[in-house]
Write a structure and sequence with these properties.
The chain is α/β, with parallel strands linked by helices. The chain has a single domain (3-242), classed as Rossmann fold (3-Layer(aba) Sandwich). The protein has helices spanning 3-21, 23-38, 52-58, 84-89, 95-101, 121-132, 143-146, 191-212, 228-238, and strands at 43-47, 68-70, 110-115, 136-141, 165-168, 176-180, 183-189. Strands 2-1-3-4-5 form a 5-stranded parallel β-sheet, with helices on both faces. The protein has a two-stranded antiparallel sheet with strand order 6-7. Strand 6 (176-180) and strand 7 (183-189) form a beta hairpin. The model has no long low-confidence stretch (mean pLDDT 96).
Amino acid sequence: MKASERYFSRVSEIMAEAFEKEADAIEKAARVIADANRERRSIFAFGCNHAGLVTLELFYRTGGMVTVNPVRMPGMMLELSPPTMTSEMERMPGYGKIIFSNMKAKSGDVLIVHSVSGRNAVTIELAEAAREAGLCVIVLTNMNTSTAVTSRHPSGKKLYDFASILIDNHGDMGDAAVELEGFPQKVASSSTVVGAAILNAVIARACELLLEAGEEPPVFMSGNIDGGDEFNRRVMAERRDNIFYL
């Protein structure tokens, strides 16, 4: 079997396992997000570097929730050169608290945090500060990796320690998913593919719950479909009090 086929097979296995074993957590996360929208509370999403790709997956795109606010801070999205600086920055104690203090978040809001290892200071401190402020913190992480590595935060804690709702992506240790004969390092990560699928499923279920409650889900229509721009302007105007990215 070719490596491309083995990647598809392994990702399919991981995704099937995650959706089966995390069904309860996915349902809880969807209900929290549906309630936040219904009660006009705010939703935020964060991840450092490649973990932040899942944040961008939820943000400003067709079928995505208008009310999901990405938390984008300097040095956290691979925008620096050299990119190795971003790896150093996500390990800096203190920065996570600075990030939270500059978010327009309040008690009762929701924060989604994604990190494969859950070991670095920024995500740990952000989740800790959010919990202390009364937010519901939905953590998406890789427990195979996170439980096998040491914390890089002075407290010794990891991201999952501050989860209100914990979702395990069930990825392999270290995230890479495919072994190549004669090569010691596995290749091809699974966390972005699986993480995006999990969180899109959460959003889909949250939208379903809103409809069941008699409320229109606040989602984007494609701007490349006739009427899309007008539709999006209307929804964003209706939800402007919970949108902080405009």
